[in-house]
Amino acid sequence: MRLAIKNARIIDPASGRDGVGDLHVADGKISEEHARPDRVIDAKGLVAAPGFIDLSARLREPGFEYKATLESELEAALAGGVTSLACPPDTDPPLDEPGLVDMLRRRAKALSRARVYPLGALTVKLEGERLTEMAQLAEAGCVAFSQANAPLANTQVLWRALQYAATFGFPVWLRPQDAWLAKDGVAHEGELATRLGLPGIPPFAETIALATMLELVRATGARVHFCRLSTAGAVELMRAARREGLPVSCDVAIHHLHLCDMDLGYFDSNCRLEPPLRSARDRDALARGLEEQIIDCACSDHTPIDDDGKHLPFAEAEPGATGLELLLPLTLKWGEARKLPLAKTLARITCNAAQVLGVSSGRLTAGAPADVAIFDPKAPLRVVPEMLKSQGKHTPFAGHELAGRVRYTLVAGNVVYEA
Amino acid sequence: MQRNPQLNAQGELQHLLSIEGLPREILGQILDTAESFVGVTEREVKKVPLLRGKSVFNLFFEPSTRTRTTFEIAAKRLSADVINLNIALSSQTKGESLLDTVANLSAMQADIFVVRHASSGAPFLIARHVKPHEHVVNAGDGRHAHPTQGLLDLYTIRHYKKDFSRLTVAIIGDVLHSRVARSLIQGLTTLGAPQVRVIAPQTLLPSGVEALGVKVFHDMRAGLRDCDVVVMLRLQNERMKGAMLPSAQEYFKNYGLTAEKLALAREDAIVMHPGPMNRGVEIDSSVADGPHSVILPQVTFGIAVRMAVMSIVAG
Fold it and tell me: What ipTM does the predicted assembly reach?
């Protein structure tokens, strides 16, 4: 199958290419040959960029099929132009056995939708006590190991886990949060939580954990990716860690680039997120950190939740929000606010994420997998939960006016989504 | 920001969920109405027909005797039918959801839901889902708010001190976990009390409490100086020893109200307590039963204030 995308504004953040032209696809790869195509897509007025890579998207299988299925969420991914995604191991049971990972990969492959990269559980049942069979999980297809949002209070286990992962060169993905300081907390510890009487999570729950983890990176040489930072203090720690040359990277969830604790309003459970929405100062530091590439990537932290999980008092509501279909418009909104050229903006959800994930997609150079998102960056998008393909309809952005609509999504040269 | 969910489009009180964000005029209206009801509660026939034919559902997801009883008495004095539901809430048992419970009761033609819940914000959730003619009165949600208690405290202060504009009020004890303190602070700042103090060790103060408009004292003696009103908060048993406080004895020594410490306040100071009291933990019996104490009148005013709130929202 040969495909030609004509008249598109082609943006390849990895190479810095940004100009109107044609993009050719052959045998599932970006091609330089201009042989007669089987299909031509006229993309006049649209942007053609590498398909987006989302570093955190929960598909809810196995175990939570009543909240979402692989079918629904991978469909949502394609509608959002997301062609690759990493899924955290907090399924039920957690991804701590090769058989589970194998099954998930097979199911995903059979659907031939977005590429699914499972993260294996770092500890058995995510309980933070015993290490999983990382080498066998890696063989089954795990690209890295993670505790998802489960606490790992025992620093000796963490130390051993990093040593063990480093032995085999497996990356470890961690969300820094001190389990004790965060205990029972549901909102950023600050004026808003005080006013609403919500138990708080202090910002130093994140920075203390991050400082500990960075020290363990120094001790073990493990490659660690920090997930979903939420505080200004964490950005500063990462700045120093990068200057020092530690083998670390990090991401931020799109919600935390745009929202802060004040958005909880009158106990809006759509704003019940993990980590919690923090102060406006933290939000601004995260947005700046992403611009300065102290933070490598933005992720959707996609978490489909059913109504029963959200129609509860704030503290009892399940944390998380749907996000796959909002990754592009919210990343564009961030880039626009920072006055960045489109190529720089898109790097945070394409080539930078590919580097963290260790994959060859996320670029449009010849020979790269033909994963492409073709979108209209100016097309208005009003967030109407019922219109989302994801089974998760809960988002703090419901009703917001954004911009950026995906028209075509290609995975391995196949047009898998058209709108 | 959304419209304050307690007010209808005309700015009238639709639900009472929190004192925060209520205009001064509405607080005044509630206190004035309560004043007119104080007479009723002293009459031989203690009933007015304002809510005749209406149903008040006392929906208590957290155990309470006192508050529930005063709401019940208040509703009955307004001639409403009262249905008490004590729903023991166990977070582990996945029974009927909160909203299902409310929907079921709503099908039984409720007019007012009086709600107490262990989770901050629960009455807001309910208020978002009830029918337009139904009203929600918050009888205490988590650490967030206890607006009728706050209002009865304001009523008591106004009764004894007449004017808020020159008052110094000290609130002493476990502000961190106290919905009573939050509601009272918001009421006092709305009505223009120039100085509201909180007195407690750091472990019992929420972070950024100054942003509520209070001045923080850790030294009780300094904090009590020249106060007109002293409000003691209840210290829950489970917080008396552990990481919050080492012991009840040490707490009493530093933050218990004794006659000797009370002497630092103004001569005509009043002492309040939302109840139930822990004598010898936060307050000495000689003070609780002494001439400055207005703790029992608070309870009496509480009925009038709850009558006022219910008659205004559903009237």
Answer: 0.93
